[in-house]
Amino acid sequence: EAGVAQSPRYKIIEKRQSVAFWCNPISGHATLYWYQQILGQGPKLLIQFQNNGVVDDSQLPKDRFSAERLKGVDSTLKIQPAKLEDSAVYLCASSLEGIIRAFFGQGTRLTVV
Amino acid sequence: GENVEQHPSTLSVQEGDSAVIKCTYSDSASNYFPWYKQELGKRPQLIIDIRSNVGEKKDQRIAVTLNKTAKHFSLHITETQPEDSAVYFCAASMQGGSEKLVFGKGMKLTVNP
Fold it and tell me: Which residues of chain B does A41 touch, with a Cβ-Cβ cutoff of 8 Å?
């Protein structure tokens, strides 16, 4: 079974620039998550989708972050404009439904300089 | 508030010894507790999970115990091997509009040959 796919693996941008990350979940998984993992910390939920609807985006900095999951499959996470403190690994995860047995992608390591 | 505390933050053991990682959670309604292993530069991998209707679950050398009254759960690794070296994250389900996972800060386990 193919896992959660993410791209790019690495991205370096200057502050105030914009960046987008892409995620392809495991086939058939209705729930998709974006997490932010700052070095030395656990993953922090940014947004959770159920199919193409947002379930939870309470911790998403909506002034600069946006995410969409059109057609209920792939998802993109965008940051515009980026700040230095956005430097982190952005992890996508998916599960069949709800929070049970979520599987993570490799993540995108973002460095903002 | 939603909180998962994990301790210790680092642990070093000799190959063959046992390792125990402890987590506490704040939400008495939490009912799902997964554990993830993250090797350096790799994705978090689900290694074991437990639901609130059981007190203990085993899978080969790893086991998880749950004490709902005290709101804490633990991961036990027996006969540790160098390949067990990684960062281990506990997580707990939290209610708050929607059900989501809140992660601990992680514990770095080093198994010395």
Answer: 105-106
Give the closest residue to B104 by CA, choosing from B41, B52, B59, B38: B38
Q: Which of B100, B105, B107 has the most A C-beta neighbours within 10 Å, making it the best mutation to test the interface with A? A: B100
Task: Note whether B100 contacts A99, CB cutoff 8 Å.
Answer: yes
* pLDDT tops 80 at residue B82: yes
Model confidence over B9-46: pLDDT tens digits?
999 999 999 999 999 999 999 999 999 999 998 999 99
Q: State the DSSP H helix or E strand holding residue A68, giving kind and residue range, or none if neither.
A: strand A65-68
User: What is residue A38's three-state secondary structure?
Assistant: coil
Q: What is the pLDDT of residues B88-113, one digit of tens each?
A: 999 999 886 678 899 999 999 999 99
> What is the per-residue pLDDT across A40-67, written as a single tens digit (0 to 9) for each?
899 999 999 999 899 999 999 999 999 9
Q: Are strands B72-77 and B19-25 parallel, antiparallel or unpaired?
A: antiparallel
Residue of A102, A98, A100 lying closest to A23 (CA atoms): A102
| A101/B34 touch (CB, cutoff 8 Å), yes or no | yes
List CB contacts (< 8 A) between B103 and chain A. 42-44
| Residue A98: closest C-alpha in chain B | B99
CA torsion sign for A10, A50, A95, B68 is positive
